[in-house]
Amino acid sequence: MAASGLPISSGSAGPIPPLARALSRNQSFQRNPSRRVLFSETPAPKHQSRNWDSGHGSNNFPEMPPKHQARNRDEDNLSEISTKPRARDWDSGDDVKRERRGCRLCCAWTSLVVGFLVLGLMLLGALSLSFVKGALPEFRVKSLNISRLEISKKDKNTFLTADVQLLINVTNKNDRYDLSYSVLSVEVSSEDINLGTKEVAEFKQNPKKVSVLNVSTEVKKSVVDDAATDDLKSNYKDRQVVIDVVFDGSVTVNMEGRKLSGLPLKVLCTSIQQVDIDNGLQPQCRVKMFHFL
């Protein structure tokens, strides 16, 4: 052993370093918090290595993609996230489809109900019209007589004086219903020349009964067209006068205690030729309840 007190190994060239100082009992149980060793039975994952460069094939570095590839990959991930439909979007789309389907079903049922109602009203109206038309009376012109026809001129005006007598047969064709007529206004004309007006009093008809209306009209010194009076005078002499008779009023149908009151009634006896009546014919008139019938 040297004088310095340090041991010298016989086989080494230099001096032996001094031994570490033994820790005291208190210091041996203190742990350094900065140094902790964790032991695990699971082996650490191996890093896959990739040769980024042919010159560094021997170095086992972790795989690091180039910057432009990482940027493209991030952009692809963002595009996938932005284009991928969310569950909320799908739910809202399903709700809209369900609402549209419900609206379509509601509209379909509403249209169906309205169609049935309209069809029922049309059928009811058709039945009512057929019944009413079957209950309407029949008008026929039985006789026509123009007892007086005078034409005079004064101060460049032409005046007409005429008396007309008509017999009209009114028949109630029903065998169950009574008919009650209001006051009927009658207008007689020939070739747009007024031959007078008349009112027929109220009357009633039993089923299958015929009533005869005596209608007499007259005009006195009525101003008329000169050319029209010439044709009327010529036809009067030849008994070829053509007249029009119009009845206007209302009728009530009595149906075994029930009444249809105030039904409009209009009778059109048009183009009635005197020669036909002289030959024993009874031209039938057209009976209307409404303007479209």
Automatic annotation (TrEMBL):
Keywords assigned by UniProt, alphabetized: Membrane, Transmembrane, Transmembrane helix
Positions with biased composition (Low complexity): 1-14
NAD as UniProt keyword: no
Entry keyword Signal: no
Protein name as annotated: Late embryogenesis abundant protein LEA-2 subgroup domain-containing protein
Subcellular location: Membrane
Segments traversing the membrane: 108-132
GO cellular component: plasma membrane
One of the GO biological process terms: defense response to other organism
Ranges where the record places region Disordered: 1-94
Organism the protein comes from: Rhododendron griersonianum
Principal location listed in the UniProt entry: membrane
